[in-house]
Every structure is written in structure tokens, then in C-alpha cells.
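Subject: Sanity check before I submit

Could someone independently write out the C-alpha cells for this chain? I want to compare against mine line by line before I put it in a report. The sequence has 210 residues.
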Amino acid sequence: MGTAALDLHVHRWEPSASPDAGTLLLLHGTGGNEDDLIPLARLVAPAASLLSVRGNVMEQGAPRFFRRLAEGVFDLEDLRRRTDDLARFIEAARGRYGFDAGRLYALGFSNGANVAASLLLSHPSAIAGGVLVRAMVPFEPTEPPDLRGRAVLLSQGRMDPLIPPAGAERLAGLLREAGADVELAWQAASHGLVQGDVIVATRWLGSRLG
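---
Independent answer below. Compare away.
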């Protein structure tokens, strides 16, 4: 993979003082960058190493991880290509920074959660699972991947105008059908982050990262 793949994404790497603490892959929402989720990550997993990534697609000046044709309508070819690039980047980053891929969990919000879901469905060995906040189905795979041994927390808003409950439940079902250990947590919230997301993410990550 080498340097070329590592250059696919602007990113921040913050190593942990503890080599056994695990690593979080931080994937921001639309309009965010590699700095956005650092404070949240420090709240929910203070000891973890952090690999925080900036999306490469610009939508009216707002960074994203893949193109969309309209609200909730994704450019599936671009999604496939960008997800492939993210998987290549992760492999190169693992070679450069030396983290354990078996203890690499995504922490993604909105668009970042969607690309994390795409990563799980198309590159199941890239991450061990993750916390996906306000995620929707990125695409329907023709064949389910093998997600046995992977674990996912979906934290969804009951009043989210962008993601109806059925959409969140469908994503949970897709991941479960592929063998993942899935927890679907509902928040009394819209699309934005709330304290409930922090509470469930802290508990869930604490049981996996220590």
C-alpha cells in the first residue's frame, strides 16, 4: 500500500499512551473534518488511539465521504469507489502507525456512519465494528458479507427526519443477517448528537476497548 494509499485522506493520528487500549477510526458528518470528533472520542474512549479522517468529496464547500444525488439518495458508484479507497487508506495507516486492526472500531456520525456501514458491508475485515450514530442503509449487498466476530452499536434518533425508524431497523437487520453482533439504541432525539449517544457509546466501547 505504501505512502500513496496513506495520502488518500487528510487525517490526524493521536497514539494512546497504552498500547493495549485499541483504536478509534473517526468519521465525521457532512461539513466536518478530521478535528470534529476528537472531543467526542476523548469522552467515550479516553485511552484509545485515534485515527481521524477527512472526507474527500466537497458538497457546496462541505466535506463528505461520498457523493449524494439528493438527500438520502446516494451515488452508489462513487460510494463504492470511496469505500474502496478508505479501506486502502486504513491498511496503509495500519502499516504506518502499527495499530491492531482487530481492535479498530469506527466512530462515525451521519455521513461518516454511513461510510462506516459501507465499509462493513463491502470490506468486512477492515474494522472490528463500530459505533454508528444516525446511520442509514448505504446500499443493499447482493450477497451478505461475513461479519461474524464484528460488533456494531447503532445509535438512532426516534424523531430523526432524515432516517425513519424502518431504515435504521433495516440496517440493523442487514448487519445481523451477515453475522454481526448488533445493538440498536434509540434516542429521544432528532438527527443531532445528544447525551444519550455519549452514554451508550461510552458503555459499548468500554466493554471492548477497556
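---
OP: Matches mine. For the report I'm noting this point. The longest helix spans residues 76-97.
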